[in-house]
Amino acid sequence: QSVTDYLRAVAPQLNDTGKELVMRAAISVAKADGHVDDSEIAQLHELVPALALPRAYANGIFVEEGLRPI
């Protein structure tokens, strides 16, 4: 099972705060080596629909974290 498949399954049980925590945790993992490359950004962008996060909300998180929005 992929991460996105898992998140699609659990997202309905998470409130917006829980979804944001999952997204920020994934961003922290991507930043762990000091650089977020294009493939990591693409993977992070794929998490948005899997978490059922509104695009504007997700873009706010990406901008706060210094990443390219969707």
Question: Can you describe what's shown?
Answer:
The chain is 67% helix and 0% strand. The chain has helices at 3-10, 16-31, 38-50, 55-64. The chain is globular, with a radius of gyration of 11 Å. The protein starts with a helix and ends in a 6-residue tail after the last helix.
Characteristics:
globular, mainly alpha, single chain, 70 residues
Cα separation of the termini: 25 Å
Mean pLDDT level: 96
Structural class of the helices, strands and pairings? mainly alpha
Portion in beta strands: under 5%
- The total count of strands amounts to 0
Write the layout of secondary structure elements.
Layout: H1 3-10, H2 16-31, H3 38-50, H4 55-64
Helix pairs in contact: 1-3, 2-3
Compact overview of the structure:
The protein is an all-alpha fold and 70 residues long. It has helices at residues 3-10, 16-31, 38-50, 55-64.
